[in-house]
Amino acid sequence: MNPLNGKQTTGATILVVDDDEVVLSSVADLLRISGYRVLTATNGVHALQILQSQTPDLIVADIMMPRMNGYQFYKAVRDNPSWTSIPFIFLTARDQQKDIREGYSLGADHYLTKPFEPEDLLVAVEARLKRMQAIQSVIQADVEDAKEQLLTVFSHELRTPLSYIYGYVHLLREGRPTLDDEATDYLLDSIQRGTERVVKLVEDLMLIVHIDSGAAEMEVARHRSPTNLSFLIERVVAGLQEEAQERNVAISMLIPKELKCFCRPVYAEDIFKRVIENAIRFSKPEGGEVWIRAGVEGDRAVITVEDNGIGIAPERLPHLFGHARQIEQGDSDQEEGGGGLGLAIACRLVQLHGGDIQVSSQPGEGTVFTISLPLAPGADAV
What is the domain range of residue 111? Predict the structure, then answer.
């Protein structure tokens, strides 16, 4: 029980960083008698050393410190994926009010102006800890839901390729004395394709876990950069040309050469690979065509991927981007599978970038996917 405000405390660990030993001692004592476990450091460098071995639930830091000021310390903390969610309360002198805007722009959770009332500090600490607990509860609920969905996907998606592999292995074993080289090669090739499909599925499931855990979002925040969409999509198409030729699908592109979006390139490449590959697979069996176009609408790069394939039934469209359910376009090409999972991942990656993905389709008339992503700062189509 907090002796100053009568509220139940969490027993959380708080790191206090201040070069003024009087302030440091006073804040630490106040938090300790209020039921918190306290770690102390006299500057940002010392605090980072502490963080290497202990992760606090909240950080209280002064701004004006030698060696490493509060903002530099804050940036160093946020650059480590393990510490990005730790709430931050800055302590500032009255003549530093002009710096408050900078701190908030960096993402600081709260400011207290020195000298402050003990009750103000305790209220701020408790509010930030409660907020973090609420966020963690939501995340945990989402994780549990994601686990259930992944189990559903895993059992559904794995069943078909594993059945093929099992069946082909059985045929190979039972028919070995009578199989000629051509039949043996066919069975071995089929086993290899099934195995590759299982490996790809496991990789997709691992990526979904990476996204649902929040790790992918932190990577996007740290590693996004201006990216030339023309070069990126051309590279994706080059990697898919062999599959397109095998399916007799022609790919056309109309993309401004200097169109740049603000994204993490590896994820942007993954997005377009999944959407374009889906268009190739579900184009017409003979004379299939895929058109990729791009342009600018406001502050967004807008890319469309259109095929002339079998289309998607209207009742399937609302579920197309949900990874708990397998979605096939029409009734052909069922052996490919995994379409719903791949598109669900593409959708999640687009959303992590602050973008959007839409689909329009009519059975027998093809499908159009429209992806919008934030333009790079100062970018325009040329």
Answer: 13-116
> For residue 61, what is the domain's CATH number?
3.40.50.2300
Express as a percent the part of the chain with pLDDT over 90.
39
Q: Does 130 map to a domain?
A: no
pLDDT at 368 over 70: yes
The CATH number covering residue 279 comes to 3.30.565.10
Residue 180 in domain: no
Residues 239 and 373 in one domain: yes
Q: 176 near 313, Cβ under 8 Å? A: no
**Residue-wise pLDDT tens digits, 132-178:** 877 777 666 666 666 666 666 666 667 777 777 878 787 887 776 77
**Would you say residue 94 lies in a domain?**
yes
Q: Per residue in 197-235, pLDDT tens?
A: 888 888 888 888 788 778 888 888 878 889 999 999 999
Domains held by the chain: number: 2
- Of 65, 90, 116, which residue constitutes the final position of a domain? 116
Residues 242 and 373 in one domain: yes
pTM above 0.70, yes or no: no
User: With 0-12 CB in 10 A as exposed, 13-18 as middle and 19+ as buried, what is 31?
Assistant: buried
Q: Say if 89 falls within a structural domain.
A: yes
